[in-house]
Structures are given as structure tokens and as C-alpha cells.
Amino acid sequence: MSVRTAELLMAIAMFLASLGLMWTVYSDDLAIGWVAGRGPGSGMWPFWLSFGMAGASVWTLVRWYNGTTPESRNEDPYIDPETIFMVGITIAAIFFLLLLTSVIGLYFAMMLFLLFYVKGIGRHGWGLTIGVTLGVPVLIYLLFEAALNKYLPRGLPFFENIILYIDDFRYSIMY
User: Fold this and answer.
1) Rounded to an integer, what distance in angstroms lies between the CA atom of residue 3 and that of residue 72?
2) SS3 state of residue 35
3) pLDDT at 134 over 90
4) Cα–Cα distance for residue pair 127/60, rounded to 1 Å
5) Residue 72, Cβ neighbours under 10 Å: how many?
6) For the segment 23-67, what is each residue's pLDDT rounded down to a tens digit?
């Protein structure tokens, strides 16, 4: 598929999605205009935003038909094989991240994911790799578990016990 064809298909898809959203708001009897004494109706924002998206899609189709943009004249392949490979590797890595989350917990699965992605795919140095691999899970832990008091998946008991030791250490410092 060429860049030109991809632009056409995307403009058509966005136009149809906009029409579908507008119809949903209209058919659910949501107030599209101003409700006296209350302000804007509950369907005003979704309807008019969808209307604007439909207008932008029509404008894209007109510009595509006239060939006014570089994309509308570009017959090069939309996605090259290297990009398809990178997307495939990323999907596989995220799949294993999700699979390992239930076994070893989110923090350790995230560390493996980041190690693979930063060192393996990004080919960064060990300093940056270790910094990101350790730093991001620590920040996620502090945000969710310490600040928001929301517990993320911890995996099997062995891995959960490691996080519980970290929790105990954090509680001993804070309280």
C-alpha cells in the first residue's frame, strides 16, 4: 500500500467514524445544543467535535483528490519492511511483558522489558540501560504504591515477598 492510498483510507475511515459518533449522539437523544437554564447539553461536545472531524476528513479527501499535499502524490510504500519488523518485535515484547506480569510481577517484568528494549533494541550503553531499567520501576513504585496507595501486580509469592520486604523498608523509614 502506498502513502497515497493510506491517506485516502485514513480519511475515509475518520469520516465514517465521525458520522458514526454523530449518529450515536443524535440517536441517543442527547442534547446537542444549549439547554436553557443548564448550559451546554451532554451531547454538544461529542457531536460538534465529531462534526469538526468529519469536516477535516472531507478537507483531507479534497486535498487528496487535487494532489495538493506531498502525501497525496507519494507512491512510496507506506510501511517499509524494517518498520514492520520493529512493530512485530515491540508487539512480541509487550506480549511477554503482560505474560510475565502474572508470574514475576509488574516491576520485575518491566525491568526485563526495559532491559531488552533499551539495550537490545535501542543499543544504548550500560549506564543508561541500568539507569532506566532500575529507575523507571522505582518511580512507578513510588507513584502507585507510595503516593497513590494502589498496588500493582506482584506475581507469584516469591516475587511478592521481595516487594513486601521493600514495603517494610519503606514503612520503617516513613513511619
Assistant:
1) 7
2) strand
3) yes
4) 46
5) 19
6) 988 887 777 777 778 777 778 888 999 999 999 999 999 999 999
